Task: structure prediction
Amino acid sequence: MELLRPFSDEVRIDRLGNVIGVKRCGVAGAKKLLLDAHLDEVGIIVTGIEEGFLRFHTLGGIDTRLLPAREIRLLTDPPVSGFVTCLPPHVLEKGEEDKAIPLDKLFLDIGLNQSQAERMVKIGTTGVFQSEMKILGEHQVSARAIDDRAGFAVLLRAAELIQSVGQAGVDIYFLGSVREETNGAGAITAAYGIQPDWCVAVDMTHGRTPDAPREETFPLGGGPAVGVGPNMTKTLCERLITLAQERKIPYSIEVMAGNSGTNGWHFQVSREGIPTAVLSVPVRYMHSPVETVDLRDIESTAQLLSAFVGMLGHEVRAC
Result:
């Protein structure tokens, strides 16, 4: 809320926990543009306690191969740290070395006995990866939850750029949505309540690495990926591509043949339907504690988004 406040006429939290900032253009009955980035992240939820060790299940799409020996921060008050159990290679039976450990065989070790753990941690407590942000090279940073808080950074930077050029011609709703990683409930309820005329979902897409398929990944430093497919409105996609070309903003085209895997999937069918676009920032190692993004892509995505807002405002004023 505090990050949005300098760029908004009104900031609030709705019933589900979405953060919503509104920048009004000053025209009664103005059309509404919703810009979204989700604030939630993947994590775990405690399901049981055995001999002081915690059973848990994942929240969101986590590859369980990442979990053994991983540090987790439980969101208790105060937070509690623990490590996912793992067997050392010395005691593995023959043939187990290359097998992923099933989730029901993993526990979280918080260093407590049964009674201590029961007092400290309640069933249903959630937790997240424990990792610190690190700078990589000249332009990249690595941390947990870059998906999609880097997207929210895009919204903040776009808001700053929009403010510098004056009234946008449309009312802009900046949405930090919840629950994208589990069921999309934040996007569903926010779009239903705001009733926007257009939506843009800003999210992450897969960054390129040597072991990844080139046709499904995008280079870090190469700008945002503009989503193209049935989840997106063709005219909005074409506008974004044209703007990127005109302003010499680097970009890629990401073909999404079905569900985009973003909040755009929910925005598109809210009420009687909303024209929707999806802009994605490439990130490596998605849904891991070391998600990696290029800061130049955050800037170029914000530049394209602010140009899109200006274009829509110009079209509305011309009508």
